Amino acid sequence: MPKVKTKRAAAKRFRILPSGKIRRNHANKQHILTKKKRARLNKLKKSAYVVASDVKLVLRCLPNG
């Protein structure tokens, strides 16, 4: 049987925590930052967790994670 490969794009975006939760970063923080309020940018800095309905999909992309 061939090796099961990890989706590299997903591996760069998600981290599986010891608790089993999956950490992700917020979008909209890369460019066109001048029109975004400072409070909004500060909220976007913080990481978030993947919602329960998407966990199965993310784990399928990270078989060795």
Polypeptide structure, described:
One of its GO terms (biological process) is translation. One of its GO terms (cellular component) is cytosolic large ribosomal subunit. One of its GO terms (molecular function) is structural constituent of ribosome. Pfam families: Ribosomal_L35p (PF01632). The chain has helices spanning about 10-15, 40-45, 50-60, and strands spanning about 15, 20-25, 50. It is of the alpha+beta class and about 60 residues long. The protein has one domain: Factor Xa Inhibitor, CATH 4.10.410.60. A 3-stranded antiparallel β-sheet has the order 1-2-3. The radius of gyration is 15 Å and the shape is elongated. The two termini are about 20 Å apart. The model has no long low-confidence stretch (mean pLDDT about 95).
State the gist of this model:
This protein is 37% helix and 11% strand. The chain has 65 residues and is α+β, with helices and mostly antiparallel strands. The two termini are 19 Å apart.
Strand content: 5-15%
Work out the helicity level. Answer: 25-40%
In the CATH scheme, the class would be Few Secondary Structures
**CATH topology value:** Factor Xa Inhibitor
Strand order of the largest sheet: 1-2-3
Order of helices and strands: HEEHEH
Total strands? 3
Q: Outline the low-pLDDT stretches.
A: none
The secondary-structure class comes to alpha+beta
The total number of structural domains is 1
Q: Sheet with the most strands?
A: 3 strands, antiparallel
- Cα-to-Cα separation, first versus last residue: 19 Å
CATH architecture: Irregular
Mean pLDDT metric:
96
Keywords: Ribonucleoprotein, Ribosomal protein
GO molecular function: structural constituent of ribosome
Family: Belongs to the bacterial ribosomal protein bL35 family.
InterPro entries: Ribosomal_bL35 (IPR001706), Ribosomal_bL35-like (IPR021137), Ribosomal_bL35_CS (IPR018265), Ribosomal_bL35_sf (IPR037229)
